[in-house]
Amino acid sequence: MSTGRARTTILAALAAAVAAAQPAKSTETDMTDHPYVGMWVTEDRHVRQELLANGRYDEARGTRQSAYQGRYEIDGNRIEYWDDTGFTADGVFIDGVLHHGGMIMYREEADR
Q: What's the Cα-to-Cα distance from 97 to each of 1, 20, 45, rounded to whole Å?
């Protein structure tokens, strides 16, 4: 085996070993027990945003289901959104109320 080919083989094996030692990156996050997971709605229910336990969200507007979808992350009382189409947004939870994009959203109650 030539020196160049041996070096390439060694580097490939080293890269594979390093990759195998790294934890797999996931685009989904397990937030099953997070207190903010669930459905959030505006008072008139025109906007309905579901924060899913896998770190994704699905937002409906009026009769348009899944108007916006993407991923989110929560840090303390702040939430950051990355929509699948590329735009970003943020919000803040204050006293159990979500303030997001100029909207005030409340946790949906089961009896609504």
A: 67, 43, 14
Residues 6 or more apart whose Cβ sits within 8 Å of residue 40: 48, 49, 50, 51, 98, 105, 106, 107, 108
E strand intervals along the chain: 38-42, 47-51, 56-61, 64-75, 78-83, 88-94, 97-100, 103-107
d(C-alpha 39, C-alpha 106), whole Å: 8
pTM of the model: 0.71
What's the rounded Cα separation, in Å, for the pair 51 and 36?
Answer: 7
pLDDT per position as a tens digit, 86-107: 999 999 999 999 999 999 999 9
Q: Please tell me the number of Cα atoms within 13 Å of 108 on its side-chain side.
A: 16
Antiparallel, parallel or unpaired: β 38-42 and 56-61: unpaired
Cα–Cα dist 30/45, whole Å: 27
The conformational region for residue 57 under phi > 0 = left, psi -120 to 50 = alpha, else beta, is beta
